[in-house]
Amino acid sequence: MSTSKIILGTTAGLAISGILGILFAPEKGSVTRKQILDKGCDYADDLKSKFSDLAASITDKIQSTKEFAQDLTQEAKTKFDDAKNDVNSSSSNY
């Protein structure tokens, strides 16, 4: 099972159990609704934070891949230029 499915299942389970715990608590309706709203905001903030971390991680990986491709391109260009110069110098010897 993939990690994202496990995280999603765990988060959903925590949210449902939190809401059920609040609903069955012996509090007034207004207090219970406030607690549900607060828990929902907490979960939303946590989800936003995790999404931001994921987006930053993806951005870093893209940047790293881009830099690797640029380095690889530069190395290939240098080797091509060296080979071209070798061919030119070899042909001038004949």
UniProtKB/TrEMBL annotation:
Keywords for the protein's UniProt record, in alphabetical order: Membrane, Transmembrane, Transmembrane helix
Could you list the residue ranges that cross the membrane?
A: 6-25
Give yes or no: UniProt keyword Membrane.
yes
Q: Which InterPro entries does the UniProt entry name for this protein?
A: YtxH
Q: What is this protein called?
A: Gas vesicle protein
